[in-house]
């Protein structure tokens, strides 16, 4: 990748895709082993294991964040303003991955607090980027 922003945007998309692929691999196994009929899945995986429910939510969190954080990165890239996003682009990607991994691992109170901290990092970066992109 040519810039940290381009790498982070691609990484964010790839991470979202990886979570989706994992979910669909598990769902395919459940269909092939006849544990769940092909039409038996709920969008939130509410009728599946707690892990699958967390996986669906972690994937949804990525989809919810992608238009905001990805959009800011895209604006920076297409306007030649990567200097605004490059310094924190990899931090944002790391925080997103950490948030997802914590979500997959646990819903305990300490895990939820850590997950929120990872999200708060992303929010703060997004605010800094939006201000920087609007300022100049």
Protein architecture, described:
With 136 residues, this protein is mostly helical. It has a single domain (4-135), classed as Four Helix Bundle (Hemerythrin (Met), subunit A). 80% of the residues lie in helices and 0% in strands. It has four helices and no strands. The chain has helices at residues 4-32, 50-78, 82-105, 109-135. It is elongated, with a radius of gyration of 17 Å.
Would you identify the CATH architecture? Answer: Up-down Bundle
Spell out the helices and strands N to C: HHHH
Poorly predicted runs:
none
Question: What number is the mean pLDDT?
Answer: 96
Total number of helices: 4
What is the CATH homologous superfamily assignment?
Membrane associated eicosanoid/glutathione metabolism-like domain
Number of domains: 1
What is the topological layout?
Elements: H1 4-32, H2 50-78, H3 82-105, H4 109-135
Question: What would you say about this model in short?
Answer:
This protein has 136 residues and is mainly alpha-helical. It is 80% helix and 0% strand.
Q: What are the key terms here?
A:
single chain, 136 residues, Four Helix Bundle (Hemerythrin (Met), subunit A), 4 helices, 80% helix
């Amino acid at each position: 990748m040519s810039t940290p922003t381009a790498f982070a945007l691609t990484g964010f998309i790839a991470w979202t895709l990886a979570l989706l692929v994992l979910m669909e691999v598990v769902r395919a196994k459940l269909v092939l082993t006849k544990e769940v009929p092909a039409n038996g899945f709920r969008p939130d995986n509410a009728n599946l294991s707690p892990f699958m429910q967390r996986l669906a939510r972690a994937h949804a969190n990525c989809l919810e964040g992608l238009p905001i954080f990805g959009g800011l990165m895209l604006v920076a890239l297409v306007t030649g303003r990567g200097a605004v996003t490059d310094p924190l682009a990899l931090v944002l990607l790391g925080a997103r991955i950490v948030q997802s991994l914590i979500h997959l691992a646990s819903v305990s109170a300490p895990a939820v607090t850590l997950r929120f901290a990872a999200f708060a990092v992303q929010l703060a970066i997004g605010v800094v980027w939006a201000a920087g992109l609007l300022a100049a």
